[in-house]
Amino acid sequence: MSDHDHDHHGHHHDHDHSELSETELRVRALESILTEKGYVDPASLDLLIDLYEKKIGPRNGIRVIAKAWSDPAYHTRLMKDATAAIAELDYSGRQGEHMVVVENTPEQHNMVVCTLCSCYPHPVLGLPPVWYKSAPYRSRAVSDPRGVLKDFGVTLPDATKIRVWDSTAEIRYLVLPMRPEGTEGWSAEQLAELVTRDSMIGTGLPKQPGELA
Amino acid sequence: MDGAHDMGGAKGFGPVVPEPNEPVFHGDWERRAFALTVAMARPGGWNIDMSRFARENRPPEDYLSKSYFQIWLAGLETLMIERGLVTREEIEAGKVLSPPKPGVTPIAPTEVTPAIRRGGPTEREAKTPAMFAVGETVRMKDIHPVTHTRLPQYVRGHLGTIELNHGCHVFPDTNSLGKGEDPQWLYTVRFDGPELWGKDADPTLSVSVDAWESYLERV
Fold first, then answer.
1. Which of B29, B107, B121 is nearest residue A23 as measured by Cβ atoms?
2. Alpha carbon separation from A132 to A46, A203, B94 (Å, rounded)
3. Is the CB of A170 less than 8 angstroms away from the CB of B169?
4. ipTM of the complex
């Protein structure tokens, strides 16, 4: 691959403005064609965008993880039937119809990828970031996950087993990271401060108590 | 199809570059392209497997040079042209040149949230018993369909272990062609790193894919 191709995948949004404005015009024209033909209602498009920008995002997954860390009965339900346990918190639907939670332990670290496209658990994490959909991540997560973790500044002990879940069907995976030490007695709200989006994909670790401002 | 989208194990793409404080969309056209794609699926009458195939079925240089939402846009255009909803001339001209296809109704604003919250579950009732048991060793078939498949190239021909059984799910290979859902047992199959990547592979690595029963063979 040339640098040019890599550039497109990693940084498509901040280069080649002429190409982007061409795309911009194309999308605008397409929307007016589809509206005029009566196939779409622009108010529905606005609502969809609002849902994915404001309601459906990693905040939801953070609540799930913090509850699993602080409520042993919920943890049990989440590991047994993740779709139902996540629905208890009112998160469900598109790209999260069939959820499985995979738990990190001192022995095993889990990481989630979709090598074929961009499958990602929307109800709990929102839409995937650009890097998750990019060729570097999709190509290397399954063959060199430790190298990928290094790109994120994460180093795991040599003995830790690494388990990569390639989302090739409609099952969506959420990583349950290890609860940081030194958080005994913390409430779910306090624990939520430690959960990061990347820790729920497996490309990061939760914050440590000392990292909180 | 063995296309550029099937990236597992490919080399040379460089490091992963996370973007700090990344927004959900980069620019308004991404918002609109995303929403148009989601909103057109039901009126357009295609399923998720057809839309995945429309995105991946393009020359590698095209797939690799377009950004993610540019691929979505191109896929949407293909799906609509195939079904006579719009013509290529209309898309190129940027204006309506022919009457709308009759009987196509848009998603109303009141339907948006319920539709997203419902999603599109793919599990179906089992009609036959599962052929494989958890713990069993299986070989992934070495097949190269020219149409849509969710069996990545990097696992084909390799030995794995059945780890989970997810019930019967819609089969993308037929569903993407409009040839029916043909629900099949879906399994998580786990592979050891060296089985996939050779003896120098990270010995702590294991990788799994989710695979429909007809992708598997007994050993």
1. B29
2. 25, 10, 32
3. yes
4. 0.98
